[in-house]
Amino acid sequence: MLSRVANTMYWMNRYIERAENYARFMDVNFNLSLESQPNAEEQWKPLVVITGDWPLYQSLYETVNKNNVIYFLGFDPQNQNSIYSCITQARENARSIRPEITKEVWEQINAIYFFVKDGLEKKRWKNNDPRMFFKKIKENCQLLYGILDATISRNDGWHFGKIGQLIERADKTSRVMDVKYHILLTTHQEVGGPLDLMQWAALLKSVSAYDMYRKKYGKLTAVNISEFLILDKRFPRSMLCCLIHAEKSLQEITGNTGGFSNEAEKQLGKLKSELEFIEIGDVFESGLHEYLDEFQKRLNAVSLGLYNSFFAAQAQTQIQQ
């Protein structure tokens, strides 16, 4: 497979996953904001911090409020990570590899694009209750996942796309946990209180983990929720589960089932193994924020390893030929 096609499939899926995560974050956060003061900065600022785009937000807006944050994360063309920008980039990636995807995939990506574009033109972020708009984005992205799984052959392109989706998902799970632990809960006196439990429940709902968590653990506790979202091997949005399946797709591409044959396999394998053999008590002992921050850096190293092992290396080979 051409490196250009592999890279495009990888990023197309990352952009779609990113857009869907932003939609679910804002949907849940809006529900949570109904319990607090309207436009409370402490309610909306964490959403921007999750994305890593807080410096850009500060350069564009003077205040933090509901409308500004929803527009910035949902619609702002100046924010390359907004839902509108991600869906636009995913559509452009799909267009450039149109022969490699199915008619059904192309039609669904177009449907999402025109839905989000219509939302921008009709200024949906000014709605008193924009939850239905973001719920439809989430549902449309999930429909696209199903179409991708049902209509694309399990070739290298599909596996590169799956790796992109899973790395993006693991990253966003870690970020939403980090923000909850260090920003939303501001005083130690609130730990274990009604506000704390409401925020942890909202965190679980933001990654569609509430029902599966309650089936496994029942009571809401910070330690159990952290263990579920970091170390659970079966829940599809846990950080470890994402890495397990990303590694399987990488092995399908390389044909290597033992050790490593390139930098991507090395970085991904080490990170997955460390999560498999760590206990949640060790995570909290080292500091949850510090652990999640290091995880995000290691995940960036995996992405860089993929680029150097497949996309950049093959592109250079083609140039030389």
UniProtKB/TrEMBL annotation:
Pfam families: Alpha-E. It comes from the Bacteria. Residues 1-311 form the DUF403 domain. InterPro entries: ATP-dep_Glu-Cys_Ligase-2, DUF403. This is Alpha-E domain-containing protein.
